[in-house]
From TrEMBL:
Gene3D superfamilies: 1.10.287.1490. This is Winged helix-turn-helix domain-containing protein. Keywords: Coiled coil. Residues 68-116 form a coiled coil. It comes from the Bacteria.
Length: 140
């Protein structure tokens, strides 16, 4: 990106943009003119109109842009983490629902078994009688 393109993109006069970029480079705040510099250059007139020097305005605009970028990146990371946790929460809720259904089914079976204990006892006794009768036939 050249000064003319930066001037057009930022809406600031060519000479002013050239001066701002010169200061930004001399201060070591940027290495080259690229898309990121547009936002920095746009903020500098606000600071100079408040009485800051161009050097002070450059530093404030860069710090503000870095802070904004850092906050934006952190916000994106947090949003991704929230989405991941929400997906995990939904998965765990499904698993919990399945486990609750299994427990309810087992309780139902247990209650059914307990209500039929008399029949179960008779089956156990009958089984023993059959076993004894079978053993008696084997020896006969």
């Amino acid at each position: 990106m050249n000064f003319k393109e930066l001037s057009e993109a930022s809406g600031i006069k060519y000479e002013t943009v050239r001066n701002y970029v010169k200061v930004l480079i001399e201060e070591g705040l940027i290495d080259e003119v690229n898309e990121d510099v547009i936002q920095i250059v746009k903020k500098m007139p606000d600071y100079t109109s408040k009485g800051f020097t161009v050097v002070e305005a450059a530093h404030r605009a860069v710090v503000l842009e870095d802070t904004h970028t850092s906050v934006t990146e952190e916000l994106t990371e947090l949003q991704d983490k929230i989405a991941s946790l929400q997906e995990e929460n939904q998965r765990l809720e499904r698993e919990l629902g399945e486990e609750k259904a299994t427990v309810a089914e087992l309780k139902e079976r247990l209650e059914s078994f307990e209500s039929n204990t008399e029949n179960s006892s008779a089956i156990a006794v009958y089984k023993e009688d059959v076993k004894t009768a079978a053993d008696a036939l084997k020896t006969a």
